[in-house]
Specification:
4 helices, 16% strand, single chain, alpha+beta, 85 residues, Double Stranded RNA Binding Domain
């Protein structure tokens, strides 16, 4: 929270650096709003726990199914290569 002028408050979003104007409000109200904003930012930046990642994880076969096969030769799709003779 910043006070560029007496009784005029601003808050800078740490995610993108943009400054948001709180305006001419009481200090207690400004502190309350900044605490709420910081809680929202902290929640959005929180890493997933290991359990969350395991429960919602994708397997390698899931990722392979998503890969585009357009333009690939059949031998490449099967995982085999043609032998050079």
């Amino acid at each position: 929270m910043h006070e560029p002028c007496p009784d005029y408050y601003t808050w800078r979003d740490p995610r993108d650096g943009k400054t948001h104007i709180l305006g001419r409000i009481a200090l207690a109200q400004a502190i309350h709003e900044v605490i709420e904003a910081n809680a929202v930012v902290a929640k959005s930046l929180a890493r997933k726990t290991l359990v969350d990642r395991l429960n919602g994880s994708r397997t390698v076969s899931d990722l392979i199914d998503r890969v585009s096969t357009k333009g690939l030769r059949l031998a490449r799709l099967r995982g085999t290569s043609t032998a050079i003779t």
